[in-house]
UniProtKB/TrEMBL annotation:
Record domain Peptidoglycan binding-like: where: 336-390
Family annotation (NCBIfam families): MltB_2
Gene3D superfamilies: 1.10.530.10, Bacterial muramidase, PGBD-like superfamily/PGBD
Transmembrane residue ranges: none
Name of this protein: Putative lytic murein transglycosylase
Organism whose genome encodes this protein: Phaeobacter porticola
Length: 390
């Protein structure tokens, strides 16, 4: 079955998936998935062999509900993930796989720092790829009712990888959310973006760094990466800047930002007509960044604002940028206070998504609107003062 055939299968199964119920008995749920696969054109021997060993994994659900690290603010989170050891190892890997990175830069126009940062954060340069059985993880998360539509297509993608001889239902392991390999790609992404960069006839993302890096680069390219353009850059802002202009959804040209007094902390800004958003992850007293169009592509890889900004910033460090100026941010909120804030914002009609104690993009937008309404600095950084005023 070619990639086009797989996509046809997915489109055929989507109506069935929309009607299928999550939850209920696990074995019955697996049986329904098997019937969907048979409807999609797979033979019974392949389907039975693929699903034969599948088991529900409670540890996957526990991991899914225990992502407290994303509750940390940017400075704490980035300092936790970025160390001198990771910087040094990144430079060593850059030299070791220079040929691969040159090929990536030539083919896709993606700076090596971008791939090195993902490689570092996802698996510590391949050293920690996860020990969860991938099929069990994907089916468990599909059966769970939190995000079934995200994970169900991945099960069928894994089935196609199995049919091709590139997935072992019993032995393929990875992260708790079903990602596989050195840069942690989901099965459907592997099908659509896998590259045999080392020429051995297989796409092996767990054992071949060239395969993993080239596949990750192709995925970023297909997600919309603009070749040979920057992604994020640290800047300084004037004291009198209208903070309401900041935020990922408010973009101006670089020329406009310069006219407002925004300047690069190091190097040069992008071209004057390039669109950029001003990001103040911990308010106007903390670090400041201009986010260029490629920064948006990061959110196609990971939905966490803190993770995305940290990965993008680390990529600049690996490409030679200096460490950011942390400044002196106002005290933020503890996780229980953040949940309280989210409930208050939701009660006022704001869409903050889940009340999870995480300062995500939706919560930031709501915070900024309330800051503006209350006459506080509208920098999207929630403080005890804002919580008290609400």
């Amino acid at each position: 079955m070619l990639r086009s055939s797989f996509l046809a299968l997915v489109s055929l199964l989507l109506p069935l998936q929309a009607q299928a119920q999550c939850g209920g008995g696990f074995r019955n749920f697996v049986q329904l998935m098997k019937e969907e696969a048979l409807t999609g054109g797979y033979d019974s021997a392949t389907v039975n062999s693929f699903f034969q060993s599948v088991r529900q994994d409670p540890s996957v659900l526990k991991a899914d509900r225990s992502q407290g690290v994303f509750q940390k603010p940017f400075i704490d989170f980035s300092r936790r993930l970025i160390s001198k050891s990771r910087l040094d190892r990144g430079q060593a890997m850059s030299r070791k796989y220079d040929t691969t990175f040159r090929r990536i830069e030539s083919t896709y126009g993606i700076d090596r720092g971008v791939l090195l940062a993902f490689w570092a954060f996802e698996t510590d340069y391949g050293a920690v790829q996860g020990s969860f059985n991938t099929l069990n993880a994907l089916v468990t998360l599909s059966h769970d009712c939190r995000r079934p539509t995200l994970f169900r297509p991945q099960v069928f993608a894994a089935l196609e990888l199995f049919r091709q001889g590139n997935f072992d239902p019993r032995r393929t392991t990875g992260a708790w959310a079903g990602e596989i390999g050195m840069v942690q790609m989901l099965p459907r992404d592997i099908l659509e973006n896998g590259v045999d960069a080392d020429g051995d006839g297989h796409v092996r993302l767990k054992t071949s760094a060239p395969d993993a890096l080239m596949s990750g680069a192709k995925m970023l390219s297909n997600l919309g990466w603009r070749p040979n353009e920057p992604w994020v850059q640290e800047v300084t802002i004037p004291a009198n800047l209208d903070l309401r202009l900041s935020g990922t959804y408010r973009k101006k040209t670089v020329a406009d930002w310069q006219s407002l007094g925004v300047s690069p902390r190091n190097g040069r800004l992008a071209g004057p007509n390039t669109k950029a958003a001003l990001i103040l992850p911990q308010g106007h007293k903390g670090p400041a960044f201009l986010a260029y169009p490629n920064f948006d592509v990061y959110f196609e890889w990971n939905q966490s604002f803190t993770y995305v900004l940290t990965a993008a910033y680390f990529a600049t460090r690996l490409s030679g940028a200096a460490a950011y100026d942390a400044g002196t941010p106002d005290t933020g909120l503890a996780s229980d206070q953040m949940e309280q804030l989210q409930r208050k914002l939701s009660a006022r009609g704001h869409d903050v998504g889940d009340v999870d104690g995480i300062l995500g993009a939706k919560t930031r937008v709501a915070v900024q609107k309330e800051q503006e309404r209350l006459g506080l600095p509208a920098d999207a950084w929630p403080t005890p003062a804002l919580l008290s005023r609400l």
